[in-house]
Design goal:
alpha+beta; six-stranded mixed beta sheet; 6 strands
């Protein structure tokens, strides 16, 4: 049930992502003084696969992974690396969490003109990640 551990593990262990952000990968919010670029991930929903005689053994999690940069190019390159790292993961254990699969769902471009000296660029990528729950 701690899908964030898996997301962090996958991203921090990807060579291209790590080269851009080091370990600046955070759940929900980044510290105010975080250096650009960085990543924030959010669980935006979960769909359990309940059974007649027990709790769900497989949840489909809706995940949004946002990358922030001071330029559009910086955010775009990082977004591409995140997509490659996260899309189509198959059975494996990441950060102690068992993942069955993941699938890229799409992305949004966002510009925040009120943040930073000249605004900040954000790409928000959406994924569905199927997580096997311990029984």
């Amino acid at each position: 049930m701690e899908i964030g551990k898996a997301i962090y593990n996958i991203l921090v262990n990807d060579t291209n992502v790590y080269a851009k952000v080091d370990s600046r990968i955070f759940p929900n919010v980044a510290p105010q003084t975080t250096v650009f670029p960085f990543i924030i991930y959010d669980v935006t929903g979960a769909d359990p696969s309940d059974t007649k005689d027990g709790v769900s053994t497989l949840d489909t999690n809706d995940i949004m992974i946002s990358c922030y940069g001071v330029t559009y190019s910086q955010a775009s390159i990082l977004a591409q690396y995140i997509r490659i790292a996260m899309d189509r993961i198959n059975n494996g254990t990441y950060g102690g969490e068992q993942i069955q699969s993941s699938q890229f769902q799409g992305y949004n471009d966002i510009f925040d003109s009120t943040s930073g000296d000249s605004g900040i660029y954000r790409k928000a990528l959406d994924f569905q990640i199927r997580q096997i729950n311990p029984t």
